[in-house]
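Troubleshooting: if your tokenizer reports a length mismatch, compare your output against this known-good record of 257 residues.
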Amino acid sequence: MLKVYDTELRSRLMLGTSRYPSPAVLAEAVRASRAEVVTVSLRRESGGERAGQGFWSLVRDLGVRVLPNTAGCHSVKEAVTTARMAREVFGTSWIKLEVIGEDDTLHPDVFGLMEAARILCGEGFQVFPYTTEDLVAADKLLAAGCRVLMPWGAPIGSGRGLNNLFGLKALRAHFPDVPLVIDAGIGVPSHAAQAMELGFDAVLINTAVANAADPVRMAEAFAQAVEAGVAARQAGPIEPRDLAVPSTPVIGTAILR
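Known-good structure output:
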């Protein structure tokens, strides 16, 4: 069971809701993934005239928890304003906080992220910050009031998997009691399983499912991979070795001269 901000979740797979071929495919993919949390992007026009309410109704009908995000925000002011609007529209204090610092890689602006997190935590938001594997940034985000961290595996939508294994392992080791969710860059189910085997608490997937040839089948594959990764971690995998270790004992075998 995963616990984030006093909420217990059975599933360790979170799913994004953008770029699916159709709302029907999105709904089927969410069901197949068994995800209990989905992210949604706020668009300003949905706040006044309530445009796009058909989409939000679809998400609500799935019985999942909504995690609004500040996707596309490049400044503290923009991110904080979007978060405040999201709380009004969706009626939740949860917010996936993104402050983008570089357009080509969508690299998080960790300085802006820390400032925005400080403001939002002070206003009672429960912040899920999209960050890097930087240990100092992580420590400052926790000091700002965040109780969950969402480090990237690789740039958003790249499908490259876990680029910096050393950094991610160090992050897990330094913050053993903090829920850590790998967000961005995961391309195939084996990447998700690897993240869980490393001891991360959950993964957030969007592009790898939505852009697959069969999003529903891919969603189910990710659900299975996450469960397998958790089970492998709990089972206690062997440590890698430089030399071979025979799996069949040599004691008692015949000695031929």
